[in-house]
Amino acid sequence: MQLGLFLKLFRTYSLEDALAHVAKQGIQTVEIATGGFVGAHHINPKEVLGNSEEIARIQDTLRRHGLTISALSCHGNPLHPNPEIAEAHHEDFVNSILLAKELGVDTVVNFSGCPGESETSQRSVWITCPWPTEFLDTLTWQWEQKVIPYWQEMGSFAREQGVRIAIEPHPGFVVYNTETALRLCEAAGEGVGINFDPSHLFWQGMDPVECILHLGKLIYHFHAKDTAIHHRYNRLNGVLDTKPYKELAERSWAFRTVGYGNGPETWKAIISALRMTGYAGAISIEHEDGLMSLDEGFGKAVHFLQEVLITEPPGVMPGTRSVGS
């Protein structure tokens, strides 16, 4: 496994300065934002595609700092009912896949997206319960008319380019847990897998280790981000909390730097489960901790993960077997 970083954390730096800074801290591979909600930081596909000199410059910059790119990420909603948003995020997605091919990067990360409740919707509608029955009718329409057709098309397109798609389960989108992840991957076909972020599972009450073992070989990329459960408010209000992220003291849960939501034993179990499935890719730090500065959260995450990572070459240990193959 390689210690990685979602480089959008240092989006105010130039690519050269960002790579130099993180390499000094022990980062081995970087995930680069190329569109969607997060924007295009450090590399803009529209400006780089087809420019062989610029592609070579980027690759040379990475080599000089001893780094690779683990994935391009355009976390967006290409299924948004507003056609302008949907088209913009779809274009970012297509361009990210094409850029990945030119850069020699094998994985592009995205969200599954979420449609509205009908063709006349203006905003996304996330269904979280089966009653009143109109909710299930809406969910069926979303999957059959929007989700499956789109992802079958994009799965085919990515395969043609020799690039994998890693979908990140996230509440608010149609793929948010293990069951919905498996449903989309099965519908989209080979080469469409998962960007696994345990922080989104912790606060929903899921067990990341069980989810990892169940998803197995479908895990193409991994985000290292933690969640702290604030038990008082969780017991009062449950996990569906719509208060702004900045209201940390009143929320049922909050994103934290790794190790500040769950301790070393939990993260050792997560890393070990990944290894049991055969995963040997990036452990990409995503820092969204509202209690820590940019460099403090990054530094603490690096130090914590260096202690729990398994870096030996992949292999089956005595008494174990590959899971999820």
From TrEMBL:
Pfam families assigned: AP_endonuc_2
GO MF, any single term: isomerase activity
**Keywords for this protein:** Isomerase
Is Metal-binding given among the entry's keywords?
no
Ranges for the Xylose isomerase-like TIM barrel domain?
20-307
Protein name in UniProt: Sugar phosphate isomerase/epimerase
